[in-house]
Design brief:
By secondary structure, the chain is mostly helical. 74% of the residues lie in helices and 2% in strands. Residues 163-190 form a coiled coil.
C-alpha cells in the first residue's frame, strides 16, 4: 500500500501533510527541469533541499518536524475526525441551549410587555377617572360660587332695602321730633298759663286741683335695642295721649 509521507511536530501535535499538491505545483518549472537532469545518486540531497524549501515556505522549521508513518497519519486522521465530531456535537448542544435560553428570555420579555401594557391601561383608566372627578368637583365649586354670588346679591338688595327703610324712619323720626318739640313749646306756654291761673287761685284763696287733662307722658330715649317701628308707635301713642 503506497502512502504519502507526512510530518508531525515533536510535541505530538498533528502536522499538515507534507506532500501537498499545491506545494509541488509551487516549484518553478525551471527547478523541476533541473531536478530531472540530476543523477539519481544526488536525488536524496535534492529531495532534502526541496523539503526544507517547502517547510520554510509554509513557515515551519525543518529541524523540528519529523516524518509520520502511515499508521500515525491514519490515527491522526481519526483523532481529527473525532475532535471535529466532538466540536460539532458541542456546537449543536450549545446552539440548542442558546435557542432554549433565547426562547425563555423572549417569553419573559413578552410577559413583561403584557404586564407593562396592563399597568399602562390601569394608569390611563385611573387618570381618566381622576379627570372626571376633577371636572365634577370643579362643576360643584362653580355651582357653589354661583349660589354664593346670588345669595350675596340678595343680601345686598335686602341690605339696601333695610338701609332705605332706616333712612325713611330717620326722616319720620325727625318729623316726629319736630312735632314733639312743638308740643313741648306749647306745653311750656300752657304751664305758664296754668301758673298764672294758679296765682289767681292762690290770691282768691280758693283751692283748685289740676285735672288729668294737664298730665304729660314722657317717651324714654331710644336705647338701640328696640326697632324703629316699635319706637315710632310708642312715640305716636304718647304724642296722642299728651294732646
Amino acid at each position: 500500500m503506497n502512502h504519502r509521507p507526512q510530518v508531525t511536530a515533536p510535541n505530538g501535535s498533528i502536522s499538515r501533510t507534507f506532500w501537498r499538491e499545491h506545494d509541488i505545483r509551487g516549484i518553478s518549472g525551471e527547478r523541476r527541469a533541473k531536478t530531472a537532469s540530476i543523477d539519481v545518486s544526488g536525488s536524496k540531497e535534492v529531495l532534502k533541499a526541496l523539503l526544507e524549501e517547502v517547510l520554510k515556505k509554509n513557515g515551519d522549521d525543518p529541524e523540528t518536524f519529523h516524518f509520520q508513518s502511515a499508521e500515525e497519519a491514519f490515527l491522526s486522521k481519526i483523532i481529527v475526525e473525532s475532535v471535529s465530531q466532538k466540536i460539532d456535537e458541542t456546537s449543536k448542544i450549545n446552539n440548542e441551549k442558546f435557542d432554549q435560553k433565547f426562547e425563555s428570555v423572549s417569553q419573559k420579555i413578552d410577559e413583561t410587555s403584557r404586564k407593562f401594557e396592563s399597568v399602562s391601561q390601569k394608569i390611563d383608566e385611573t387618570s381618566r377617572k381622576s379627570d372626571e372627578k376633577f371636572e365634577k368637583v370643579s362643576r360643584v365649586i362653580k355651582d357653589v360660587c354661583r349660589q354664593n354670588d346670588e345669595k350675596f346679591e340678595e343680601v345686598s338688595r335686602t341690605f339696601d332695602k333695610i338701609q332705605k327703610s332706616v333712612d325713611d324712619n330717620k326722616e319720620i323720626l325727625k318729623e316726629k321730633i319736630k312735632q314733639l318739640e312743638s308740643m313741648i313749646t306749647d306745653t311750656k306756654v300752657q304751664l305758664s298759663v296754668n301758673a298764672v291761673a294758679l296765682d289767681d287761685v292762690v290770691k282768691d284763696e280758693t283751692p283748685r286741683y289740676e285735672t288729668s287733662d294737664h298730665m304729660r307722658f314722657k317717651l324714654p330715649p331710644l336705647d338701640g335695642k328696640s326697632s324703629w317701628s316699635i319706637y315710632l308707635r310708642q312715640f305716636e301713642a304718647i304724642a296722642t295721649a299728651n294732646n
